[in-house]
Amino acid sequence: MTTLEKVSANKCFEGELTKYKFKSAALGGLSANFNLFLPPNASPSTKVPVLIYLAGLTCTEDNGAQKGSFLGPASSQGIALLFPDTSPRGAGIEGEDVDWDFGTGAGFYLNATHPKYASHYNMYTHITLELPQVIEAAGNIPIDWNRQSIFGHSMGGHGALTMYLSTQKQYRSASAFAPVSNPVNCPWGQKAFTGYLQGGIAEAKAIYDATELISKSKDPVHILVDFGTADTFYKQGQLLPENFLKAARDSNYDEFQVRVRSQDGYDHSYFFISTFASDHIHFHANFLKA
């Protein structure tokens, strides 16, 4: 039986942010950390909805919790926040620490099928299945897992959109800050997919690309995307939000179902994220509290 170990706890916005760790089966038995914020209304008799935040390249479970400006709005809305890590840590695979955009800190929220990475790099299962099961099994954490939504930044925005679109409504809504929206057509995604997946780009196209997934989707969706026009990675063609928007419109999703907003002058940083954090929390609250 998997046991959660409490690492630290801090009171904030009348709620509590707690860091936990546990041995993750999905990540090959490695120790995994996550942060969990519970709002003040959470109690043994009151389970609260949860919003999962996926961070970007080089980040950990701490970036969103400490810099995202999410906790105050989440507290006022009575929503829990779950902050997982971005990759397994300490797998000891040759080459996983050579580049900043692949390997440690860059798990790309997929399940690896290349034999070199398949034992450890299974962030898709870690996020969608393992963490909810482990937290629920603890028995003393009042989260209503029937009310989940998901959001993220950059690589984490890619993860949020693809998990939302591929899990057949495990999540009630999804949003993203500067997501890698069409990774099969950008350098970051191509590098990740050819490294982690036995079938490379072709395998990724069917499962791990938000633009490809929205083009085939027929279900109702609730998606919000923000990106900054001064974002260096946007200018370099890593994000491609226009491709995602076009695919959504071609699939007859209107602006009430898929909204993509360009924010003039904003970059890729947490200054950008924190500016629009409250917008995203309130967007998800519409669906989590229904």
UniProtKB/TrEMBL annotation:
It comes from the Eukaryota. It is an enzyme of class 3 (hydrolase). InterPro entries: AB_hydrolase_fold, Esterase-like, S-formylglutathione_hydrol. Its EC number is 3.1.2.12. The keyword Chaperone does not apply. Its main location: cytoplasm. It catalyses: S-formylglutathione + H2O = formate + glutathione + H(+). It is found in: Cytoplasm. It holds the Pfam family Esterase. One of its GO terms (molecular function) is carboxylic ester hydrolase activity. The active site is at 154 (charge relay system), 231 (charge relay system), 268 (charge relay system). Serine hydrolase involved in the detoxification of formaldehyde. This is S-formylglutathione hydrolase.
